[in-house]
Write a structure and sequence with these properties.
Layout (H helix, E strand, L loop, with lengths): L9 H8 L11 H22 L5 H8 L1
Protein name: CopG family transcriptional regulator
InterPro entries: Arc_rbn_hlx_hlx, Ribbon_hlx_hlx
Organism: Halarchaeum nitratireducens
Length: 64
């Protein structure tokens, strides 16, 4: 799996950490970031679909 590095404001990191660990929804920060990224991309795909901006390749995969 590729690794990336991003700059994150402390406020976002603090909020993220509230959801990570034994009492949180996510096992670690990476898990939380991946889940958030997937959800955001799904929302963007839905918006693009409503506006007819998705490629034919995506539409074919969606129908499968």
């Amino acid at each position: 799996m590729p690794k990336i590095s991003v700059d994150v404001p402390q406020e976002l990191l603090d909020d993220l950490d509230d959801h990570v660990g034994d009492d949180g929804k996510f096992v670690n920060r990476s898990d939380a970031v991946r889940a958030s990224l997937r959800k955001t991309l799904d929302v963007l795909d839905d918006i693009d679909a409503r506006h007819g901006r998705l490629s034919d390749e995506y539409d074919a995969e969606d129908d499968a």
